[in-house]
Amino acid sequence: MPRPIYATVSRSALAHNLATVRQHLASAPGEAAGGAGGAGGVGGVGGVAGGAAGSEALRADASGAFHPSSPSSRFGEAAPAATTASAPASAPPRIWAVIKANAYGHGIERAMAGFSNADGLAMLDLAEAVRCREAGWVGPILLLEGVFEPADLDIVGRYHLTIAVTTDEHLDMIEHARFARPVDVFLKLNSGMNRLGFVPADYRDAFQRLSGFAQRGKIATVGHMTHFSTADGPDGISEQLGVFRSVTHGLRGPISLCNSAASLRYPEVAADWVRPGIALYGSTPFDDRSAESYGLKPAMALRSALIGTQDVPAGGSVGYGAAFRAPSPMRIGVVACGYADGYPRHAGTGTPVVVGGVRTRLVGRVSMDMLAVDLTPVPGAHVGTPVTLWGAEGLSVDEVAHAAGTIGYELLCAVAPRVAVRSEA
Ligand SMILES: *Cc1c(COP(=O)(O)O)cnc(C)c1O
């Protein structure tokens, strides 16, 4: 028998979360993302430079002189209503399901199945994008960091991938590339995060170069994207949104702004495409609001079992460094799960763990292959008693992450290859 640790990934939870985010976006107060008079749904954010009028200009121009066919219409789906001038006023934003990092640890193929209703998939790795095409995904695929060398553009062309354009090097590579048919791109604005993208002063020149490539038939659509650094915090998005608005004012093309935090907190700015990741896996992007409160369900559960118990006398220590000492005689359970499985080593005494359906606490330091739990509230526990580390029985990955001083994202991505993953309906 293998070690009893395993993860489960629920396809229905992934699908449920996608539908929940979609519904949340659709029910944004007043101006749900779209349409001619919809103002791109920005009015809801107070004090934003540019305001609704600027957004309306963006929206009205969104028909785009140079996208004879949208990415999806080329794949035989309906044209994206939100990017055409004739869009109905209620055109909902489209969703790129972000599946980078092996779908936040859930597995690309599983995520593809769970997100079959997504409008597109977004990721980083060319090889993962090719895997999605080969597994049958015909809709748009966005490479969030663009390409890394000129040869990548051959694959972009061959597999109809949409790329972020973030540097002058990207523009040079496109200039020298040959495509069998025009490629769709999203030009990325560095609106304040100072990670990827063109600074405001250079953005319009980059757009002009892309427009030139479009006229030469290399590029179909040029969209506009930026990424918010504080959508989850008190600073919000208004400053970056204001920069985005003024820099892109009057330029044609579809717009993509929102990660999970912005999609959940500012659904009224969703525009043409949103890019949620973490929310789709049922974990929260916020410190102060749970995924459950948005109706999201954990897609991954990490489970194991007790492989030993110890009766520790008062004053006895548990684990490396004797970091925990029993204040009185207590029974300890040893769980087959350690940091080499992806459990965070910085989770200290008190981190919640569910043993035999009962919530208890981790004690002492997490070892490479094991961790110890307090069996005081579970007197009947024995070798073989099931243990939930996160993602089921009311224990969220976010609670465990918080106890370890990190975020749910890191825990989900870090589940180790040695942990078997079972797909669930
Ligand atoms: C990772 C990523 C996202 C998704 O972020 P979440 O916080 O997981 O929703 C969106 N856009 C870009 C550019 C990203 O890199």
Which properties best describe this structure?
alpha/beta, 425 residues, 2 domains, 27% helix, 8-stranded parallel beta sheet, single chain, 18 strands, 20% strand, Lyase, Ornithine Decarboxylase, Chain A, domain 1, 6-stranded antiparallel beta barrel, TIM Barrel, binds pyridoxal-5'-phosphate, 13 helices
Biggest beta sheet attributes: 8 strands, parallel
What structural class should be given to the helix and strand makeup? alpha/beta
> In the CATH hierarchy, what is the class of the largest domain?
Alpha Beta
Task: Name the CATH homologous superfamily of the largest domain.
Answer: Alanine racemase
Ions, cofactors and other bound molecules: pyridoxal-5'-phosphate
User: Low-confidence stretches at least 5 residues in length (pLDDT < 50)?
Assistant: 30-88
Strand content: 15-25%
Number of DSSP-assigned strands: 18
Spatial gap, N to C terminus: 24 Å
Shape: elongated
Q: Which fold name corresponds to the CATH topology of the largest domain?
A: TIM Barrel
Overall mean pLDDT score? Answer: 88
CATH architecture of the largest domain: Alpha-Beta Barrel
> Roughly how much helix do the residues carry, as a percent range?
25-40%
Query: Quaternary state, please?
Result: single chain
Modified residues (N6-(pyridoxal phosphate)lysine): 100
Protein name: Alanine racemase
Organism: Pigmentiphaga litoralis
Family: Belongs to the alanine racemase family.
